[in-house]
UniProtKB/TrEMBL annotation:
Ligand binding (NAD(+)): D30, K35, T86, T121, E159, K270, R335
Catalytic activities: UDP-alpha-D-glucose + 2 NAD(+) + H2O = UDP-alpha-D-glucuronate + 2 NADH + 3 H(+)
Protein name: UDP-glucose 6-dehydrogenase
Active site positions: C267
Record carries keyword Oxidoreductase: yes
GO biological process per UniProt: polysaccharide biosynthetic process; UDP-glucuronate biosynthetic process
Species of the source: Modicisalibacter xianhensis
Length: 441
């Protein structure tokens, strides 16, 4: 099938590469000509396991191409994916200007029936807006004779395993009221639907809400667990025991009940906020979502609070080794990363940071530039040198079994503030390390 994908960000690029790899002929379009040139040379702007080889292979075999020419791209596709960004605007609602601009571009250039698919995470009702924009543009061209379907097909990939998630999706949600569009979508996804039925067809609005409901449910689990961890700390209970105790109930499950430093990334914070705004817009008070957001906001400050209460007013002039900058492992993404809230609070208090992350060093440099109170270190060991304590913010695998003797040698005092509960508190105390965790005894 000939497929056009607008947007070469996380969602668009992964979707394009994975569809090409399944045998479709895919053209990815972006307005950023530099990015398109670099993609053709095999340079992938994001770190995502497996993506580079997938892009290079499919590009060299001619199933995947990149262009800035939207007219040519629209003509190529029998279906058109919209996978551009929906950044939050000032009040936290999803800004649809890029999505609607692509809808207009498609309508300007289409010359046959088209299926337009919303892949970006967009508020309920967006498909109607896309439909209206296309109809208006076609009318202005004097081509109201051209027919089209708008489908909602939300993306559920996780950063760090985006390729694997897209190649083996656990569900494929298709929102449409058109039998023809359903048939085409089934054909498109047939290579991914072999072993058991993963396609769930529903009306457009339900598909749009499904994406938000999924992310908000996961965010709720995390905020709930963070609240339990904070309670455990104050009640003298061990959240790790509580986690195992509740996770064993299949209705609760073990996934997404790890307490920590709050959720970050490009999806959860943005989507929870956007759904709150959608609810506000129809005078519905989304009480649960507001609490989820408020807990997360506070959770991002808890590590700093622990550091502050340990050192009292003596933070000025202290140096901290910081392990983990990305919002989660296996990505270089720093969007809404808890490490940023922490570093900024430490700097504000006059402390210095010696940071290490396996992937997000360049991104940190890009965001903060050069500053006297931040050293980016080449290894996790180098970050420890002469620091007053170690702080762990991201649970990269390489942090799970460090050389504790070396940590003790390098730090001026053996103190670890762990925002991810990587180590056993009892073991730490046996080793003579002062260990702060999230809700552990
Ligand atoms: C998320 C959804 O998982 C994905 O389905 C959706 O399409 C996009 O948003 P992503 O943002 O890549 O994916 O990251 P995810 O692995 O879900 O983690 C989100 C955040 O939650 C991270 O900051 C992570 O540290 C935090 N988290 C996750 C916890 O604090 N505890 C947990 O138990 C799980």
């Amino acid at each position: 099938m000939n497929v056009t994908v607008f947007g070469t960000g996380y969602v668009g690029l992964v979707q394009g590469a994975v569809l090409a790899n399944a045998g479709h002929n895919v053209v990815c379009v972006d307005v950023d000509s530099h990015k398109i040139e670099r993609l053709k040379e095999g340079f992938i702007p994001i770190y995502e396991p497996g993506l580079e080889s997938l892009v290079k292979e499919n590009y060299s075999e001619g199933r995947l191409d990149f262009t800035t020419d939207s007219s040519q791209a629209v003509t190529h596709g029998d279906i058109q994916f919209i996978a551009v960004g929906t950044p939050p605007d000032e009040d936290g609602s999803a800004d649809l200007k890029y999505v609607l601009a692509v809808a207009e571009t498609i309508a300007q250039h289409m010359d046959r029936h088209q299926i337009i698919i919303d892949k970006s995470t967009v508020p309920v009702g967006t498909a109607d807006k896309v439909k209206a924009r296309i109809a208006d543009t076609l009318a202005a061209r004097g081509r109201s004779d051209l027919t089209f379907d708008v489908v909602s097909n939300p993306e559920f990939l996780k950063e760090g395993s985006a390729v694997a998630d897209s190649q083996k999706p656990d569900r494929i949600v298709i929102g449409t009221d058109s039998e023809h569009a359903e048939e085409v979508m089934r054909e498109l996804y047939a290579p991914f639907n072999r072993i058991h039925e993963k396609i769930i067809v529903m009306d457009v609005r339900s598909a749009e809400l499904t994406k938000y409901a999924a992310n908000c449910m996961l965010a709720t689990k995390i905020s709930f667990m963070n609240e339990m961890a904070n309670l455990a700390e104050r009640l003298g209970a061990d959240i790790e025991m509580v986690r195992q105790g509740i996770g064993s109930d299949p209705r609760i499950g073990y996934h997404f009940i790890y307490p920590g430093v709050g959720y970050g990334g490009s999806c959860f914070p943005k989507d929870v906020q956007a759904l709150i705004r959608t609810a506000d817009g129809i005078d519905f008070d989304a009480k649960v979502l507001k609490a989820v957001e408020a807990r997360n906001y506070e959770q991002k400050t808890t590590l700093f609070q622990k550091i502050q209460s340990h050192y009292g007013d003596e933070l000025k002039g202290k140096t901290f080794a910081l392990w983990g900058l990305a919002f989660k492992p296996n990505t270089d993404d720093m969007r809404e990363a808890p490490s940023r809230v922490l570093m900024e609070a430490l700097w504000q208090a006059g402390a210095k940071v010696q940071a290490y992350d396996p992937e997000a060093m360049e991104e940190t440099q890009r965001i903060y530039g050069s500053r006297d109170d931040l050293s980016l270190c080449g290894t996790k060991e180098a970050a420890l040198k002469g620091a007053d304590a170690l702080i762990i913010v991201t649970e990269w695998k390489s942090f799970r079994a460090p050389d504790f003797e070396l940590i003790k040698q390098q730090l001026s005092l053996p103190i670890i503030f762990d925002g991810r509960n990587l180590y056993e508190p009892k073991r730490m105390s046996k080793k003579g390390i002062t260990y702060y965790s999230v809700g552990r005894l």
